[in-house]
Amino acid sequence: MLDGKRILLVIGGGIAAYKVLELIRRLREQNASLNVVMTRAAKQFVTPLSVASLSGGKVFDDLFSLTDETEIGHIQLSRAADLVVVAPATADLLAKMAQGLADDLAATLLLATDKKILVAPAMNLRMWLHPATQRNVATLQKDGVLFVGPEDGDMACGEYGPGRMSEPAAILAAVASAIEGDTRIALLPGIGRFDKPLAGRRVVVTSGPTHEPIDPVRYIGNRSSGRQGHAIAAAAAKAGAEVILVSGPVTLPDPPGVSTLHVETAIEMLAAVEAALPADIFIATAAVADWRVEAAASQKIKKSDTPPQFALAENPDILALVAQRTAGRPRLVVGFAAETDHILAHAREKLQRKHCDLIVANDVGDAMGKDENEITLIAPSGSEPWPKMRKDEIAARLVRHLAQMLKDRPDA
Ligand SMILES: Cc1cc2nc3c(=O)[nH]c(=O)nc-3n(C[C@H](O)[C@H](O)[C@H](O)COP(=O)(O)O)c2cc1C
Fold first, then answer.
1. Which residue in 132, 138, 157, 345 is the catalytic one?
2. Is the beta carbon of 15 within 6 A of some atom in ligand 1?
3. What are the tens digits of pLDDT across the range 51-104?
């Protein structure tokens, strides 16, 4: 996708600069050609030598370097790119950009360029939420600067909130979409939004697989790890919600700040969900077995010459039962569609058939048991593809999205 594309990467002086080494590696894997500019502060966090070794080119840092000026020139450097990427975009760099300052090579290039600029902000949440930074962000958005992130997350300083730089994979996806002119994926920050957006809300989440017994030692199960559902429960709790997690058998610890109910079968999961309702939001991430053995054996089935035959019975469809409640239906019912083929078509069909408000569609092969996932949100009004991200990042962003959906509903 980035074959031969020329990226001018500006590295700012933030703690997240170390992640940019991984971004450089990924850009190079995609055959992008790179010119890199480091600010003076950036060199305190990563060395020009590491950057040059990974980028395969010269690192520029001095506006007044005679050699740079004769070889390439600062104006040419700013123009000879398909896209300018600033990562990490520090509060200082955003301020300089918003004001049109040009007091070093990075700021001068950012002012002199006639190309699209994509910034990946990274800073402490108080710096991000400061009215001055928010003013600068609003100015830059008005100027057409694209943003990827920042994300909510744990900060190096021990606080939690917005300000963490997006992961290299998400920045790479935003680079690709910015170059293609599709800016939907360049994720705009929610300005001044960090105020426990789910405070006072009750959220029920299901997670993990179910195990449907065949006999006391054997069961029908699936490969769901519960990572995505547990991450969503944790993110909803961090966003201020009271969270009840109904978990099938998983090897994960119970998330902090969440009431976790442990179940084994689909029937137990349904009973636990019904007991946990009412709720404002129900999120069904569990991979519930569609069938159970109608009459599980009470003793271990002995090996014999002929394999045993089982009659299967259909399990309750927990998502549909909750979505179709007439009394006590959660205001938002969210399902997950893990498919192997025709992912979006199946997910749209599931949205309609089960009467959900939102379906999160993903590819089973990409998602199950992995740390990252690539999802598409499917709502009655349309769909929204998200770049590949870690599951905890998806969880944080999904929670924010749901908080906004609740707020936008007339009955909220
Ligand atoms: C340990 C340390 C970490 C820092 N992390 C950040 C950060 O993540 N984001 C930020 O905006 N500033 C951060 N700063 C402050 C910047 O380094 C400082 O504002 C600097 O002038 C930014 O320069 P630049 O924008 O030209 O790179 C940090 C400073 C220190 C000492």
1. 157
2. yes
3. 999 998 889 988 888 677 777 778 888 888 999 999 999 999 999 999 999 999
Q: Where are the domains of the chain?
A: 6-180, 202-296+308-408
Phi, psi of 138 (to 5 degrees): -60, -40
CA of 99 to the centre of ligand 1 (A): 18
Q: Which of 240, 238, 314, 324 is nearest to 284 (CA)?
A: 324
The 10 Å CB-count burial string (b at 16+, else e) for 176-194 is bbbbeeebebbbebeeeeb
Mutation test residue for ligand 1: of 10, 11, 15, the one with most atoms within 8 Å of CB = 15
Residue 337 · residue 255 · CB < 8 Å? no
- 356 belongs to the catalytic site: no
> Is 90 exceeded by the pLDDT of residue 126?
no
90 close to ligand 1 (CB < 6 Angstrom): yes
pLDDT at 398 over 90: yes
In CATH, the architecture of 202-296+308-408 is 3-Layer(aba) Sandwich (3.40)
Distance from residue 92's CA to the centre of ligand 1 (Å): 7
Domain 6-180, CATH homologous superfamily name and number? Flavin prenyltransferase-like (3.40.50.1950)
Tell me if 6-180 shares its fold with 202-296+308-408. yes
Residue range 34-41: mean pLDDT, rounded: 96
Rounded to two decimals, what is the model's pTM?
Answer: 0.55
Tell whether the model's pLDDT for residue 317 goes beyond 50. Answer: yes
